[in-house]
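On clarity, I found the account of how folds are encoded harder to follow than it need be. What matters is that the chain and its backbone geometry are given together, residue for residue. The format is easy to grasp once an entry is in front of the reader. For illustration, here is how one protein appears when written out as sequence plus structure tokens.
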Amino acid sequence: MKKLIVPICILFLSTAAFSQTRSRTTTKRGRASSKTTKTSVTPAAAVMKTEGATKVANQIKNLTTFLYLLGGVAKNLEALDAAAKSGEASPTIERNKATLKASFEDFRVGLDQLEIYFRSTPELQPYYTKLAGSAAGAADGEAQAAAGHFDQAGRKLLSVVSRLTDVLVAMQ
């Protein structure tokens, strides 16, 4: 099921953003007539919406790839860290931890930029409310990683992925 999230998101991105609604109106004599109303979506707005959805999808791809790799690495680092408490910590372990912490920071920065982009782009502002809080979730994960709790940090990023997929659903 989790492996289907990214292909489903890509499928959402490939569908058209245009919609057409039908409304029924009644004339003075009581007869019903059909009136078609098109939702006005300018080509520029459609392009901005597609660009925004692509940025969200890229974040989802990057986060899910990172989380897949983090699972095994985090367990090993926490086990090695517990073993190292009795002696000196290995420079390799510390370097790996620093790399992971930097990755969490990079995700937070990227999500901050994504939120700013959605907030400052008029065509994407309706979706900002669903996106808001993603960077805060990544910041929580970053704090957990800084404390050496990589498993908990990964769980925080999973909630961010969930929020991002909700944004994509709202954008279709």
